[in-house]
Amino acid sequence: MKRFIKCAVSFMLVLVLSSGIVLYPAAASQQCSCGEEPIIYVAALGSATLYQNAGTKNEKVLFRPETSAYVKLVAKLLIPLVSVIVTKDYDAFADKLIPAVGDVFGPLANAENGDSTVDVTTKEELPTDPTHGFDYSYYFGYDFRADPLVVAKDLAAYIDHVLELTGHEKVRLRASSMGGVMTMAYFEQYGCEKIKSVIFQNCPISGTAVAGDLFCGRLEINEDSLYRYGATALPLIMDVTLARFLMVIIDLLKNSGILGTLIDAVNRVVDNCAGRVFDELLIPVFKANCGIWSFVPDEYYLDAKKYMLGDNPNEELEARIDYYHYEVQCKAGEILNGVLDSGVPVMIVAAWGVQRTPLVPTWHNDSDGTVDLKYSSVGATAAPLGESLGSGYTPETDDGHAHVSPDNHIDATTCALPENTWFVKDMVHCTTHDGHGELYNWFFKNDDNADLNIFSNKDYPQFLQNDIKNQKLIPQK
Q1: C-alpha–C-alpha distance, residues 216 and 238, integer Å
Q2: What gap in Å lies between CA 400 and CA 419, rounded to an integer?
Q3: pLDDT single digits (tens) 357-384
Q4: Which of 17, 309, 365, 459 is packed most tightly, with the most Cβ within 10 A?
Q5: How far is CA 377 from CA 392, 414, 462, in A?
Q6: Domain spans of the chain?
Q7: Higher pLDDT, 244 or 379
Q8: Is residue 136 helix, strand or coil?
Q9: What does 7-62 look like in DSSP terms, one character per residue?
Q10: Mean pLDDT of the region 221-243
């Protein structure tokens, strides 16, 4: 292959020198008129691999850890976990737990001001392939621990690079999960002049209660939520036969009372070890993680700062997280409406109907398994998971259109963009199939229409059902 490349280069050089023709690489001045502005996928948390001592003989993958690291961690903790349930020696268990987990995740801690330590980096590179179109996306990855405003600057440079590479004046953005945080920071800092349209898929635009609870030191393992997680989430994320088998096991444990006994025992461990785990592990690792701070919803924010940062927080860190929180997250509706008013079509996709991770007191919030519906939709009113808004419910606000779901579970009139927010039932966080691709392609292919919204296509009304078996998104009935 190398010989072929050398021969090809030599042949081109001879051709140029003999003909007097000068060849230039494709440049921004060479405009592309294909009509298909490039799509940039602003990826989710973990989109970029984090390395310690990259490029040296001591290079190590920090995130996401290799499977072997998890296996070793479980092996270290299995016997101590069984032992603590029997002996109730919680300090002895914490003595094993904290250093074992710290070995895996401790190096992810940022410097006190929120910057990465010098030995932890990514290997992200700018793209070189000018290929673009509706079936091709450029991938933007980033360090999830970074200040979203820093990532926004990188995204702005990435957008400029893609525009120059492809010869277009605008790009389309599709943001997934945490990618929505970075996209919102970009809009706040740089506006939307270079954006053709944008899709937010299951994004914690207004945060997520998991982060809020954990950053306030709140943990809870609830038997009902754990059972429902198995019933609602497992069939959506794994082979149906395996999910059914696991549910048979869970049913046996629940009906025999063993599940409740185990959960009670685990909660006792949590109650007795949580203080040390937070003080000695979670707070040191995550307190300066600006990225995760962006997930903390407004109603948790002040309590979380007091719990995680204490009475004398680092001033630079506090200024950073405050800026994102108050100027981006708390102004999400204003920013999004500004984008829409600028003629940039916006699609917000919020998923629901899945039991959220059963680790915190807000386990009853409806969600996609990770992000609460009310936060990914930027303000929807939703009943608790498995319940309805009640008979005779009337929308909290009235914009002249009906925005209540057919099953009376969601009122979208309270959203920041009620006519640009789609809801997908039984969609696990950012788990997509061909049906989602068809929805997104329809949106991008019609984004010359600045008024593109939930009324634009009868096949894609505001409330959709995730038909996983047939890989379709169909109108909810």
Answers
A1: 32
A2: 11
A3: 788 999 889 999 999 999 999 999 999 9
A4: 365
A5: 23, 9, 12
A6: 42-477
A7: 379
A8: strand
A9: HHHHHHHHHHHHHT-------TTS---SS---EEEE--TT-S-EEESTTSTT-EEE
A10: 77
Residue range 457-467, pLDDT digits in tens? 999 999 999 99
Return the H-helix or E-strand segment holding 424.
strand 421-425
- CA-closest candidate to residue 48, choices 108, 114, 113: 108
**Tokens (6 digits) for 228:** 């429902």
C-alpha angle 273-279-282 in degrees, rounded to nearest 5: 90
Q: DSSP state, 238?
A: S
Read off the pLDDT band of 14 (50, 70, 90).
very low
- As beta bridge partners, residue 466 has 473
> What does DSSP assign to residue 324?
I
State the Cα–Cα distance between residues 376 and 348, nearest whole angstrom: 8
Q: Flag whether pLDDT at 329 surpasses 70.
A: yes
Q: Write the DSSP string, 253-290.
A: HHHHTHHHHHHHHHHHHHHHHHHHHIIIIIHHHHTT-H
Q: Is the pTM of this model over 0.70?
A: yes
208 phi, psi to nearest 5 deg = -155, 140
Side chain identity at residue 84, one-letter code: V
Percent of the chain whose pLDDT exceeds 70? 92
Which residues make beta-bridge pairs with 52?
60, 120
CA distance 427 to 468: 9
Q: 333-344 burial, b if ≥16 CB within 10 A, otherwise e?
A: eebbeebbeeeb
